[in-house]
Amino acid sequence: MGYETKQSRLVDAFLKENTEKHFSAEDVYFALVSKGEKIGRTTVYRQLDKLVEMGKVRKFIVGENGACCYQYNDEHCHNHYHLKCSGCGKLIHTECDFLDKLSAHIFSDHQFTIDGSKTVLYGTCKSCVKEKV
User: Fold this and answer.
1) Whether 62 contacts 91, CB under 8 Å
2) CATH number at residue 5
3) Residue 116: DSSP 8-state
4) What pLDDT does 115 receive?
5) Residues 45, 106 within the same domain
6) Are residues 6 and 59 in the same domain?
7) Which tens digit of pLDDT belongs to each residue from 11-44?
8) pLDDT at 13
9) 83 inside domain
10) N or C end of the chain: which has fewer CB within 10 A?
11) pLDDT below 50 — which residues of the chain?
């Protein structure tokens, strides 16, 4: 990773402490600043990019405008699919035999490999559906 600063360790540690959650770069920045840490937005973005390059963090494109969120890449976040609620914005991890079979079908019949770590299916979560009723 090259030269490691206190600020880069802060970003890494924050994500390690919250492995089951997803954060935007702004979320990480505000969480650290609210703890009294002195860190710049640019540093947060730069460190997140480095962690993604190293494979320590996964980056998810979650919006049509290219919005991203990040999650520490540990045993909680392995090959699975992601469901993004268009209502509340929640990103849900899901392991699904049917989606695995669909992925296998796409590979065998269409010679195309789906990258589940970057695949996000959009829809509405159960909570948001209930609110609409």
Assistant:
1) yes
2) 1.10.10.10
3) G
4) 80
5) no
6) yes
7) 999 999 988 788 899 999 999 999 999 999 999 9
8) 94
9) yes
10) C
11) 1
